[in-house]
Amino acid sequence: MILASSGLFLIAIIILMKDYKTESTKFMAAICFLAGLGTFAVVCEGPIKDYLVTQGASQETFKLITYISALMSNIAHYIGPYFMLLYGLSYANIVRKNKKTIYIIMFIPSIICFIYFPIVSNYLKTPNELELYFKLLSVWCVPYILSGAIFIVYSYLKEKSYSTKKYKLINASIVAPFFVYCALANFLLRSFGTDQTWRIYPIVFFIQFTGFIYFAYKYGIFGVRLKFHKYMFVFEDVVQLVSDSVLVLDVKLNIIEVNKAFIRNFTTEDKEYKNFYDIMNCSKLIEDKKNLINIINESKANNVVKIIEIIIKNKSEEKYFEVQTNPIINNQEYFGIVLLFKDITLYKKNLELFKQNQFEIIEKERLLSLNQLIGGIAHNLKTPLLSSSGGIQIIKKNTTKIYEYIQAEYTDFEYITKLMSEVNDWQNRISEYLIYMSDVITTVKGQVKEFEQIDEDTFSIKELIYKIKLFMSYEFKKYHCTLVEKIDISNDEVIKGSINSLLQVFNILLTNAIEASEKNKERTITLGTYKKNKEIIFYVKNLGKEIPTKVQKNIFNKMVTTKGNKGTGLGLYISKSIITGRFNGEIYFETNDMETTFFIKIPLIKEG
Asked: In 10 A of CB 271, how many CB atoms?
């Protein structure tokens, strides 16, 4: 009895030392202390009194020991059931508001017992008095104790987390039976005259709570959280409060813990999951299962953190997650792994926005620099061109005078007439060339128009086709290519945006088409356009070889070219940036062994 009492007091102290902040833990420590107090009351009535008899103690000493024993017994009987009820309520988290008021009201029966019942040892009561005494106590003590046991079982039944449920089962299997035994043996049976069952009560109590401490040490029972150094209990309820999704697995990939964020973000069914494969097959991660298995195995084999990115596609949006594996190692022993799923969707969107803004800044700077360069070239070329045009007029005027003079002085002027006719013919040709060169320079200069003015421009299909032919006529003559037009749309259709920006794209596409055309075939380039729904589709088709498969996947990226050392890999990248960024359109291609076609899709201006 002395060992049982001492053990219960020691358990109470250990519990408070290990986790004195948790409410249910404090109540359990109080139960252990009161049980130890009740057990020590039995010790006072037995071994201590026997020892005092051998020592020849006085009658007053026996009376004092009897009174102390009765007081300790009454405290254990009157307050013990109260704390058993509070432990069940706190463990199951039943009372959330006005706790102090409710707890005070529940303490009223204990106070009435202290007032109503005199402090008299049970050994001094007659059988009838003892039976009546326990009947009165059973009125409230038995419901209190059994309610505490019911709340503990309820806490286990309502739990959905597999790992938490497992540990609550251990707790319920130890504490609830003890509560039931206490209610029956210590109160209910004694109220019907069965007064011997309590004698094994200290032994049962000691066995129950010894088991309780063992499981708390081994597994970490919820409510009484003993966290010894040898097995630091890593799977705590704190993961439920983490905003990122957490999945904790043991060595065999059984689920130790899964938090609410993971259930909310990934699972499709509200049920209990036991292992990794079970939860993967019923989640949005089923397509990433293989990749997750690979990083788990790599992390386990090398004891290192591994990170991958996954995409979860919903009906309305895509979510990006960074998955990080954290192996759980203690004393070089592998216990399991923690998978942390961090939502990086916002980071991805911000990064994409940053890249887009960076590209626009670079493009703007490029255009401004090019504007200065082309502006200077245009100025330097147009001045002598205009001067040449004026000089041609003077030559024509003077040539006419010379011709008239020769005609008047000489009768044989057939040869002179032939020469003068040839001079006049070349004068007309040179004038046409100068006009053409001036138009080309104006077109080139327009391509570097100020960035801010681009979005307000509009132009027609007719204007665009004319400038394309004007700008590319020299290239087609140089490479002996034929341009075939297939304009299946009204020339009056209007497009919003910079005509010179779109002209730059067609310059790139047509130049690529010319260079891709094979010499042994008919070098025909087709430029076509048609209307589909509320969009205009342009296309440039050549009869060259198929674009290599490796190049197709990244053809619109920087530094990707089919021209080898002759290409920069920027043409199609710039083209895509212009079409998507300035026209809100789309550029794509089709290629095979016979021909390659690039398509440009641009929305029409809304009417009204």
From this structure: 10
> Is-contact 407 415, C-beta < 8 A?
no
Query: What's the CA gap between 55 and 61, in Å, rounded?
Result: 11
**The pLDDT of residue 222:** 42
Q: What is the pLDDT of residues 123-172, one digit of tens each?
A: 778 888 888 888 999 999 999 999 999 999 998 888 776 666 777 787 78
Alpha carbons 404 and 17: distance in angstroms, whole number: 126
Return the pLDDT at 525: 92
Angle formed by the axes of helices 345-409 and 414-446, to 10°? 160
Say if CB 312 and CB 318 are below 8 A apart. Answer: yes
Residues 6+ apart with CB under 8 A from 289: 277, 280, 281
CA pseudo-torsion sign 186, 188, 191, 196:
negative
Structure-token pair, residue 87: 């432990």
In this structure, what token pair is assigned to residue 85? 């009820």
pLDDT tens digits, residue range 4-46?
677 778 777 877 776 676 788 888 888 888 888 887 887 787 7
**Residue 253 contacts residue 277 (beta carbons within 8 Å):** yes
Going by C-alpha positions, the residue among 302, 300, 305, 278 that lies closest to residue 289 is: 278
Q: How far apart are CA 562 and CA 291, in angstroms?
A: 34
Strand partners, 310: 321
Model pTM score: 0.43
Distances (CA, A) of 299 to 205, 254, 337, 509: 46, 17, 8, 49
Whole-angstrom CA distances from 12 to 16, 23, 205, 227, 489 are 6, 14, 13, 15, 91
Give the neighbor-by-neighbor strand order of the sheet with 596-603: 482-488, 524-532, 535-542, 596-603, 586-591
Q: How far is CA 161 from CA 93, 127, 383, in A?
A: 16, 50, 84
Q: In 447-552, where does DSSP find H-type helix?
A: 461-478, 499-516, 549-552
Identify which of 152, 558, 122, 577 has the alpha carbon closest to the alpha carbon of residue 357.
Answer: 577
Query: Looking up tokens 């192996």, which residue turns up?
Result: 327
- Residue 221 CA from chain centroid, whole number: 32
The tokens 């130049």 sit on which residue?
511
Provide the token pair at 185.
Answer: 């043996």
**What pLDDT does 346 receive?**
85
Q: Are 84 and 182 in contact (CB under 8 A)?
A: yes
**Distance (Å, rounded) from C-alpha 274 to C-alpha 264?**
17
586: part of which helix (H) or strand (E)? strand 586-591
Asked if residue 482 lies in contact with residue 524, where contact means CB atoms within 8 angstroms, the answer is yes
Cα end-to-end distance, the chain, whole Å: 98
CA dist list (Å): 335 to 7, 254, 262, 328, 330: 32, 11, 21, 6, 7
Q: Residue 205 has which token pair? A: 């109590």
Question: How many other CB atoms are there within 10 angstroms of residue 29's CB atom?
Answer: 23
